[in-house]
Amino acid sequence: MTKHYMIILLLVTAGCRNISGEQICWDRGQWLDLTRDFEKSTVYWPTNVTFSHDTVTYGINDKGYFYSSFLYAAEEHGGTHFDAPLHFSENGRSIEQILPEEFTGEGICVDVSEKALADRDYLITTEDFVGWEKMKGKIPAHAIVLLRTGWGQYWNDPLQYTGTLKSGAEGVGELHFPGLDPAAALWLIDERNVKAVGIDTPSIDYGQSADFLTHRTLFSHNVTAYENVANLESVPTRNFYVVAAPMKIKGGSGAPLRLLVWIPEV
Ligand SMILES: [Zn+2]
Questions:
Q1: Which of 48, 92, 157, 210 is geometrically suited to a Cys-Cys bond with 86, CB 3.0 to 4.6 A?
Q2: What is the pLDDT of residues 148-181, one digit of tens each?
Q3: CA 31 to ligand 1 center in whole angstroms
């Protein structure tokens, strides 16, 4: 039985288990929503079309009852969203091909906010993960790794959050926010066999990246990514369950994501 199914079994059959010396009760706990609202002000890449949500019908209709319906539009890569391998890998899978067992599972959260808040171009290194493991134990195989840079606190201040208010190529050149070092991404893949990586910034590559090597490294190994993740300050360091369900866009390179974590009672 894989670890994944064991966790589902734990969730379904309930009860408390001792994991790494901690008593975890999977049947008691709470859901936490790590998703940003999609609205006109939601952060998108400077070259992207941003989110729109316009009224088609709103009010009492001629039959006498209330009815509302809206038209929404946006590019795939904005707000809290999911990156499929196709985003940077020509033969990579598109979003509807990602299997449920790939976007659900055990999560860990690595907090590098002290370093990242002091350096807006900070690259999360392998040493950060090795340091986390010294305190928390080995990263479980097939884990979903959430990276807390502290950048989430700037969400309502787009200039601080991204480094620019400009759109287009000019805006791209001014992006400054922390990200995951490509070598550390490869370490997570090769040495820890992780399932996915999420971050509380606009991109898993840091803002000044010109080659998007972290994206390319992850996607060429079929590891997916979540960006603009919210509320990581409320997520424990380990022993939680992630549900990262993207909109099922056929042929999509990415999609809006509803990202939830189940935090069991300890
Ligand atoms: Zn993306």
A1: 92
A2: 999 999 999 999 999 999 999 999 999 999 999 9
A3: 24
Q: How far is the CA of 64 from the centre of ligand 1 (A)?
A: 44
How far is the centre of ligand 1, averaged over its atoms, from the C-alpha of 37 (Å)? 16
- Domains annotated on the chain, with CATH: 32-37+76-265 (3.50.30.50)
User: SS3 letters for the chain?
Assistant: CCHHHHHHHHHHHCCEEEECCEEEEEEEEEEEECCCCCCCCCCECCCCCCCEEEEEEEEECCCCCEEEEEEEECCCCECCEEECHHHCCCCCCCHHHCCHHHCEEEEEEEECHHHHCCCCCCEECHHHHHHHHHHHCCCCCCCEEEEECCHHHHCCCHHHHHCCCCCHHHHHHCCCCCEECHHHHHHHHHHHCCCEEEECCCCCCCCCCCCCHHHHHHHHCCCEEEECCCCHHHCCCCCEEEEEEECCCCCCCEEEEEEEEEEEEC
Return d(Cα 198, Cα 200) in angstroms, integer. 7
Q: What type of residue sits at position 62?
A: D
What would the pLDDT profile of 13-62 be if each residue is shown by its tens digit? 456 777 666 778 888 999 999 999 999 999 999 999 999 999 999 999 99
Q: Which helix (H) or strand (E) holds 102?
A: none
Ligand 1 ion local residues (Cβ < 5 A): 77, 83, 254
Q: Enter the tokens of residue 64.
A: 């006498």
Q: How far is the centre of ligand 1, averaged over its atoms, from the C-alpha of 12 (Å)?
A: 32
Positive or negative: CA dihedral 43, 46, 47, 52 = positive
DSSP state of 139: P
Closest CA to 173 of 45, 43, 87, 83: 45
